[in-house]
Structure formats: structure tokens, C-alpha cells
Amino acid sequence: MVKKYSHIIVGGTFDHFHLGHQEILKTAFTKGQKVTIGIVGNRMFQKKPLSATIETFSIRKKHVIGFLEKKGWLKRSSLIKIENIYGTSLTDKTIEAIVVSSQTKKNALIINKKRSKKGWPSLRIICVPYRLSDDKKPVSSYRIRSGEIDEKGRLIKELYFHGKKLILPDNLREFLRIPLGTIFFPKKLLPSSKLIITVGDIITQKLWQQGVRPNIVIIDHKTKREKLTPMRPPSNYRQTRSINAPGTVDRRAVDRLDRTIKDFINGKGPTIMTIDGEEDLLVLPSIILSPVGSLVLYGHWQFGAVVVEVTEKMKAKVAVIISKFDRV
Length: 328
What we know:
Elements: E1 5-12, H1 19-31, E2 32-40, H2 57-71, E3 77-82, E4 97-101, H3 105-117, E5 124-128, H4 141-145, H5 156-161, E6 165-167, H6 170-173, E7 182-183, E8 196-199, H7 201-209, E9 216-219, E10 222-223, E11 226-227, E12 238-244, E13 248-250, H8 251-265, E14 271-277, H9 283-289, E15 295-300, E16 304-309, H10 312-323, E17 326-327
Parallel strand pairs: 1-2, 1-4, 2-3, 4-5, 8-9, 8-15, 9-14, 12-14
Antiparallel strand pairs: 6-13, 6-17, 7-16, 10-11, 15-16
């Protein structure tokens, strides 16, 4: 097949490499013989939502290279690091076209204005439609970072929590007594995090006493299934409620938690989520649904408290656990 353009450029963050990135690169290599791929450095995304959870440059570059090798396109490509929207578009006159998404088309228009001032021909702008996720919304790195979808556009909540309720099988009870993270000592400083979720009354109260305000608190006013006199929470917490029977993960509680996490990410402040029933197993959806880099702390019958740093590896571990639950 004869390529329409001899040299095409494309640029992006390529964070959590997903279907949209694949489509843009596929379009570029279908229409161009040589493709220069600009991968943005750290300075360009400091103001992006959840920027602290964007993958490092080396990881993002590795994912792009892996895709190119799989497709047999690596020898036709040139990968560069860019610190602005222009890349080599104002220094390389051989470039004929640029592939963009509807979101980044405005950058291509700015580039063409600059090229026009230099007396250079404008780049042909090839706009690639968004790839859609299961809910018919655009796949984006932000939605992946926030824990809403995966790289294939599948909804995380539907992927792991479909059905009305997950029921803990007896053969998993002992396994879940093993801490998912590290033992937390109340006097120890927590690592910096954009989101802290606590599951359990005692761990929440201890943090409040130290002046630490978790962003999302999940409590049931009980400890070891005995009623507990609740501590008066600090001011400015929003309040919400849900239902979750002992030994289960109720879809209603998952939906409420998912909404609460999204509300916090969107700036609506900290929330106390009071559970009618038992909150213990809501540690699992807290890890699955929260952004990478979050912290989930929960009470432990033997060690007092456990802190879990949310990583892709930890999410995968919890997903395996959830897959072993019974569903109704």
C-alpha cells in the first residue's frame, strides 16, 4: 500500500497506554511512511488531573515501543521527548501531516499558525475519533487513572462487581486475615497521597485524634461487631449511607463508594460513609475503585491497622480475590 505522506508526526502523554493511543498510532502508520512520535516530558502535565499518578516517561515510552514492535512499525518510527506542543514541527520542514484527537486538534492549529509565519506549508491535520468505553464515553488516561475504566475501555465497577452482591466463601476467610498491606502504627507518618480512605471506626478515630483527616471514611459504629459510641467527627465532612451485610460486598455500597470517590476527585470534599451492616469487606472495592497512589487503611483484628498503597499490582491482586467470591 502506497503511503499518502512521507513524514507524519504525532504527540501525546501516552499515559496508561490505551485503545485511543492505539488508534492514533494506527492511523499515523497507515497514512505515513515515517512517523515521529513525541512523548511529553514531566513539565507538560503538571496541571493535568491526578498528575501525580501519571506513569514515568520511561514506562510510557516502553509501552509505546512495545506496541510498535508488535505491529512491526518500530523501524519506521522515531521517538522523541517533547516539552511543548511543537516538538520538531517548527524545525523539520519534511513533516507533512499531524495526527491528533479532537481534544488536541487546537494544538495542531497553533502549530500551523507558527509554520505560516515561517513561510512553511501548513500540516495536514488528521483528526482521529475517540475510542469509546463500555458506557459509550471516550476512553482517556484520566478515566483510567481515576479507577473508572481499564486500558481496554471496560468499566472497572462492572468488570468486578456485576450482580447484586458478592458473598465471601468460607475458604477465603482465613486468607483475608492476612494483611493486604503493611502494619500501620498510629504515630507513624503516612506517605503523601491524593486520597486517603479509612475502613473501620477505630482506625478512623485514631487518625482524627492525631489531626489526620482521611478523605473518605467508611464506618459502621461497631468494633468486633459490638456497638461503639461514635466519636464526633471533625467539621466539614459530608455524610452518606449505604447497606452492606456481614460477609458480603453489596452492589449498592459499591455504587455509593464509587460515587463518593468521584465526588472527592471532583472537589466536593471529605465524606463519611456510614454502613448499615458491616463495612469490613468494603476494603476490596476501595482498593479497586480508587486512583493509583491512594492509601486505604483498615482495622485488623490482630495487628490493629493495615495501610495499603494502591498500585496497579495491588489492584490486580485484589481482583483475583474478588473473582473467588460467590455472586448473587
